Amino acid sequence: MSQISRKELKSDEFVSGMDAALEFFLQHRDRIIAAAVIVVVVAAAGYGYYAWNANRNQKANTLLAVGVNTLHAPLTPATAGSGGYADAAARAQAAVAQFQKVVDQYGSSSAGQMARYYMGLAQLDLKTPEAAKQAQANLEQAGNSGDAAVATAARHALANLALQQGNLAKAHELLLALTHQDSPTLPRAVA
């Protein structure tokens, strides 16, 4: 009887393992190919959604930045081509229009929720009763948004609006609620 060396034994195990794998593949080829196609399609769909969402968020953030820049633009006498705003109301009106575009096109995104908050602030700058009602409605919607930072900032703005309107009970209620949360945009101590 001849003995099998270790090297021959290992190579035989490897060869037999490969033979078993090949036979398994040949028996289940259709299922394996179908599973591979499904995995590739799901991965491609996931990447496609990710790319679409990233592009959408980038566009929303760009529009939001334009509105914020308008809202914070300095007041300068408007001359031909200067693009300045003569008063706060004109600047606020331009900013409201830009924020409205963001809300209309990207309202469910975080930039859309932030635009609703800024639109409320800009409407307060218009200093008309109708604009104040619209501002309050926008700030309340932003206060109920899923983005905690936006919701906190909007509730703080609503508390300030209630103070300006003389509604101290409402302001107290809002500020008391803000003291029970901890947000990076509005720490408890500030509330």
Which features characterize this protein?
191 residues; mainly alpha; single chain
- Give me the number of helical elements: 7
Helix fraction?
over 70%
Q: Shape, please?
A: elongated
On the 0-100 scale, what is the average pLDDT? 85
- Which series of helices and strands comes N to C? HHHHHHH
Distance between the termini: 91 Å
Report Rg.
Answer: 30 Å
Number of distinct beta strands? 0
Q: Tell me the β content.
A: under 5%
Contiguous uncertain segments of 5+ residues = none
The largest sheet, given as strand count, sense and whether it forms a barrel, is: none
Structural class: mainly alpha
Folded structure, characterized:
The protein contains 7 helices and no strands. It has 191 residues and is mainly alpha-helical. Helix 6 (148-164) packs antiparallel against helix 7. The protein is elongated.
Write the layout of secondary structure elements.
Layout (H helix, E strand, L loop, with lengths): L5 H22 L1 H43 L16 H19 L3 H17 L2 H15 L4 H17 L3 H12 L12
Short description:
It contains seven helices and no strands. It has 191 residues and is an all-alpha fold.
